[in-house]
Specification:
Ubiquitin-like (UB roll); Alpha-Beta Plaits; Rossmann fold; 3 domains; 7-stranded mixed β-sheet; binds iron/sulfur cluster; binds FE2/S2 (inorganic) cluster
């Protein structure tokens, strides 16, 4: 591998590595706007300029590849890069001044304030001064459909959003129109981003506040938000996400890209906007037994008195939950899996599975058998199984499977449903216990590709509501003698 020198550090990288990426590997973050690892580099913003010894002009590090080592001298230093020379500092200050020429000073009302690259780089690399005496360009904000709003005054024409709709989501709804000072990012007349199931990603990609989400706009200043690493529950991909929350309320979900994993850069709008589901509107429902409020101890006593127990675990919960729930079953063969949701594959490169059951693999590894519910129905009807415990979320089960689950619960002498909020199916069980939602607990899953992915508790569950794993552990335990 060729050796390059970045400031005083020598390192070997694969030939063709972009200088910007090589700098990152030694902890030097080159400021950039238009570069994005999942998009074609275009070098429009000029913010990533570096000095390369022997070259007369500064070079854009996002488009400059490291050359191969010479065959006759493989140990030679092929490139010497300076990232903090006076020429580089001068260029960055100049670029910042250009980018800010038309940018309004509306940070106090801009949703991007606090996570804006213009703010950050202006502070780190700008001159702190502007020679712009002319009137700034003005546009009114526009809706790009129901999900996205554009404020063209703030746009710095990095074209990340345009390239995303062309190269990733494929609809090509966004374009760069006009020329020179009139340049603007817009859509073809009459087009919106409403039909784009991945449109929300343009908001994450926009390094400034030009593209904002109708859903999040003006709802919370970002510096009040805490970000908890989690995963999306949308599909078996278990896409890593950030849960942004404050005051025990989730405000938004964002992708949490993993180093070297291009498929983790984007999430669909369906999973992005699913957070509302996890903000509880009402107080947590109480444990129920035969239609009347009761206590956990009474439910456990009723379950333990019922006879041989089978468990049905929906594979949308964590592995710890699966393990503990499995312990409640009278024998390892009496662990059944449920959940049959599938998702449409829109971007095959990013969606390597159509399975809508997040942790099917983790449940399977813990002995839960999917597709065997008819067998369980037979055992219940034959009296071999007396009690059934169902871990369930109605959103991940089809009407057909719900009907089958209902028959199993009705046939059992005793049935217990564990749910975040009671569904019609859960209400039909003999007993019902509330559980924490996945944003209210920490656990891990094994995704479709066999990768272990952890998620952490973002908000507190209501008082008295516990994670499935803790609840199931106590359901399996023999109560202490009084
Ligand atoms: S709207 Fe944002 S992402 Fe799109 S070109 Fe302008 S600054 Fe870049
Ligand atoms: S990041 Fe290199 S020119 Fe924009």
């Amino acid at each position: 591998m060729p050796t390059i020198k970045i400031n005083d550090v020598e390192l070997s990288v694969a030939p063709g590595t972009l200088v910007l990426d090589a700098c990152r590997t030694v902890g030097i973050d080159i400021p950039h706007y238009c570069y994005h690892p999942a998009l074609t580099p275009v070098a429009t913003c000029r913010m990533c300029l570096v000095e390369i010894k022997g070259q007369p002009k500064l070079a854009t590090s996002c488009t400059t590849p490291v050359p191969p080592a010479p065959k006759d001298n493989p140990d030679a230093v092929v490139m010497e890069v300076l990232t903090n020379s006076p020429a580089v500092a001068d260029a960055r200050a100049g670029v910042m001044e250009f980018l800010l020429i038309n940018h309004p000073l509306d940070c106090p009302i801009c949703d991007q304030a606090g996570e804006c690259k213009l703010q950050d780089y202006s502070y780190d690399y700008g001159s702190g001064d502007s020679r712009m005496a002319e009137v700034k360009r003005r546009y009114r904000y526009e809706d790009l459909g129901a999900k996205i709003v554009i404020d063209k005054n703030r746009c710095i024409h990095c074209t990340r959003c345009v390239r995303f709709t062309r190269e990733i989501s494929g609809g090509g709804e966004l374009i760069v129109a006009q020329r020179g000072a009139g340049l603007e990012v817009t859509t073809y007349t009459g087009k919106t981003l409403d039909q784009n199931p991945y449109a929300g990603n343009v908001v994450d990609l926009c390094p400034v506040g030009a593209l904002t989400s109708r859903d999040f706009r003006f709802r919370k200043r970002v510096w009040y938000l805490k970000s908890t690493p989690s995963i999306s529950r949308h599909s078996a991909l278990g896409s890593p996400i950030w849960i942004d929350h404050e005051g025990n309320r989730v405000y938004r979900l964002r992708p949490r890209p993993l180093e070297g994993k291009e498929t983790t850069h984007f999430i669909s709008d369906e999973e992005r906007y699913a957070y509302g589901h996890y903000n509880r509107a009402d107080a947590a429902p109480l444990p129920m037994l035969k239609g009347a409020p009761t206590s956990f101890d009474d439910v456990r006593a009723a379950l333990q008195a019922a006879g041989s127990v089978a468990v049905i675990g929906q594979g949308t919960f964590g592995c710890d939950a699966a393990q503990r729930l499995g312990d409640v079953a009278a024998s390892p063969e009496l662990r059944y899996g449920s959940g049959d949701r599938t998702i449409p594959v829109v971007l095959p490169k990013y969606q390597t599975s159509a399975d809508g059951i997040l942790n099917r693999r983790g449940f399977t590894e813990r002995g839960f058998r999917f597709g065997a519910l008819e067998e369980l129905l037979g055992k219940v009807q034959a009296g071999e199984v007396k009690a059934v415990v169902l871990l369930h979320d109605a959103a991940f089960t089809s009407a057909k499977e719900t009907e089958l689950l209902g028959r199993i619960l009705q046939a059992a002498s005793f049935s217990l449903a564990l749910e975040v909020t009671p569904s019609d199916l859960g209400r039909s069980a003999t007993a019902w216990l509330p559980i924490a939602s996945y944003v209210e607990e920490s656990d891990f899953i094994v995704n479709h590709d066999g990768e272990l992915r952890r998620y952490q508790k973002a908000i507190q569950p209501p008082q008295g509501v516990r994670p499935v794993a803790a609840l199931a552990r106590d359901l399996a335990a023999v109560p202490a003698a009084v």
